[in-house]
Structure formats: structure tokens, C-alpha cells
Amino acid sequence: MKTTTSFLLWLILICAVVTAQWAPQHSATTARFRGVSAASGVVAWASGSGGTYARTTDGGATWRAAVVPGASQLDFRDVQAIDANTAYLLNTAGRFSSPITTRRLSLMHLLFGMPAPASP
Description:
This protein is mainly beta. It has one domain: Thrombin, subunit H (Beta Barrel). Helix content is 14%, strand content 38%. The chain is built from 1 helix and 8 strands; from the N terminus they run αββββββββ. The chain has one helix spanning 2-18; strands at residues 33-38, 44-48, 52-56, 64-67, 76-81, 87-91, 98-102, 104-112. A 4-stranded antiparallel beta sheet has the order 1-2-3-4, with no helix packed on it. A two-stranded antiparallel ribbon has the order 5-6. Strand 7 and strand 8 (104-112) form a beta hairpin. The model is unreliable at 96-107 (pLDDT under 50).
């Protein structure tokens, strides 16, 4: 009984120490972010409303936000970080399907688009 109690106490203490440590991040934008993806321990991308995306290359100490040209009406729901220069953004508006970044943070182009399904 004493061994079981000791084990349970030890397990509770370990679980309390291992929990995630969250800290607010500042993105210098009013967009609401919905997706985040890390390419490494220091590079991460976020996707959000108003065609906005953000990137950090210093582990979250600073974020640089921008709007994809021509996509200010889109709501990016997810992002997949590839590296510091490339990330895929996904929206559900039906107008664009997946822009991709290339070489520079400010340079984006449409990878492919799918029209919205016709209403019945």
C-alpha cells in the first residue's frame, strides 16, 4: 500500500512539472490567428484572418506579420511550415486553395485554386 501511494504521488508530481508552458506572443497585427506550425525550434509560421500570416525565426521573440497579396478577404485556417522561407496556407473560402511562400516572406503566389462548389 505504501509503495502504491508513493508511486501515485511521484506520478502526480512528474505530471505537474511536465505540463506545457504557454506564453503570450505579440504579432503586431489585429488578425485572429487559427493555425500554427513549427519548422524547427526557432522557425514557426501562423495563419489567420484577413489573409494574414506571420513568421518567427527567433523562437517567438519577434513575429513579422503580412497579408497575402489579393487575399485580404480570406481566412487562413491552417498552415504547414516547411522551412524559414516556405509555408503552405489553407483556407476554406473556395476562392483559393493553397498559396505557398517562395524565397522571400513578402513574395507569395498561388499554387493552385479550386472554385467554390455550386449551390444546389
